[in-house]
């Protein structure tokens, strides 16, 4: 099963500013890179985000939100999504 990284933006006050939206995160897109395993995706994330905890530290395959960028990453099964976001460099 192939896997991808979803990118989300975290809004710390999103639930207060827009309570009708029911959350704090917004989908941005998917990184244009496909992984063979969840662990491979996790290792790739950590290689480029060593200032953050590993992506599966809470056993949910979701990263913490980065206080510098307000972005977080979620490992998902690849089921034909458009992969529009450039990979990490």
The strands making up the biggest β-sheet line up spatially as: 2-1-3
Ends apart, CA distance between termini: 25 Å
Largest sheet: 3 strands, antiparallel
Continuous helix count:
2
Number of strands: 3
Determine the strand fraction and express it as a percent band: 15-25%
Uncertain residue segments: none
What structural class do helix, strand and pairing data support?
Answer: alpha+beta
Categorize the overall geometry. globular
Count the domains.
Answer: 1
Helix content: 10-25%
Radius of gyration based on Cα positions: 13 Å
Mean pLDDT: 92
Oligomer, anyone? single chain
| Sequence of secondary-structure elements | EHEHE
Description:
The protein is α+β, with helices and mostly antiparallel strands. It has one domain. It has helices at residues 14-17, 38-48; strands at residues 3-10, 25-30, 71-77.
Features:
single chain; 89 residues; alpha+beta; 3-stranded antiparallel beta sheet; 2 helices; 17% helix
Give a short summary of the structure.
The protein has 89 residues and is an alpha+beta fold. It is built from 2 helices and 3 strands; from the N terminus they run βαβαβ.
Topology diagram in text:
Blueprint: E1 3-10, H1 14-17, E2 25-30, H2 38-48, E3 71-77
Antiparallel strand pairs: 1-2, 1-3
């Amino acid at each position: 099963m192939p896997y991808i990284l979803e990118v989300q933006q975290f809004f710390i006050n999103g639930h207060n500013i827009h309570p009708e939206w029911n959350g704090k995160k917004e989908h941005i897109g998917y990184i244009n890179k496909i992984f063979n395993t969840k662990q491979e995706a996790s290792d790739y994330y950590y290689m480029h985000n060593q200032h953050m905890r590993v992506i599966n530290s809470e056993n949910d395959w979701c990263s913490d939100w980065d206080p510098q960028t307000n972005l977080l990453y979620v490992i998902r099964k690849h089921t034909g999504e458009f992969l529009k976001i450039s990979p990490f460099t």
